[in-house]
Amino acid sequence: MPKGTLYLIPVPLADNAASKSFTPYLVETINQISEYIVENEKTARKFLKEAGLKIPQSEILLHDYGKHNRESGLSEFFKGLEAGKPVGLMSEAGCPGVADPGADIVAEAHKRGIKVIPLVGPSSILLALMASGFSGQSFTFHGYLPIDKILRAKRIKELEGFAERLNQTQLFIETPFRNNQMLEELLKTCKPQTKLCIACNISADDEMVKTMSIADWKKQTPDLHKKPAIFLLFHA
Length: 236
Prior knowledge:
Layout: E1 5-8, H1 18-21, H2 24-30, E2 35-38, H3 41-50, E3 61-64, H4 67-70, H5 79-82, E4 87-90, H6 102-111, E5 115-118, H7 124-132, E6 139-144, H8 149-166, E7 169-173, H9 179-189, E8 195-200, E9 208-213, H10 214-217, E10 229-234
Parallel strand pairs: 1-4, 1-5, 2-3, 2-4, 6-7
Antiparallel strand pairs: 7-10, 8-9, 8-10
């Protein structure tokens, strides 16, 4: 029996951003799938409804791939795919597999010889890079930096050095409730002439993407508390 296909389905990054995120192919695809592997069931059901799902939600099977559900192995997620069914993979927001534990599901699909098809959709990392004005030829995403203040300051200096020596954009994120502490550390640690872009609430109604020098950010420091943000460093 031929195996099914794993579709990687992007989810909007913010509330009220559905119209900016969906493509006709995405809507067509979700109406051919009745089984999903998802990071957050509530978000997934809301997304499917907004995207124009015609299949009754009661007929949709959702597998939660949260940390505790992955600890016992991944085989449970692949029964439908091994039986020839198409299955969708969804992150809580943005592109599955990018800064997302769904990458483990995708890796396992390749091991099992299952076809993987990524759909076009919003990635906060790429959208922030596009809007920053920084190098898109050479860039690195580092995920989360250390929580410890000393280690975090050391890492920031290291990334600033990479940006300067390699002419490379450095991207990283922080948990939204620690964004202000991250910004405070950046302003204290980086050189005045280093460029910092803050991309906050991308695709939301109150979206902010702004690039300035560290010296200029010190003159007008925004409140980023509990707002999803990406930080980008560059040395022009």
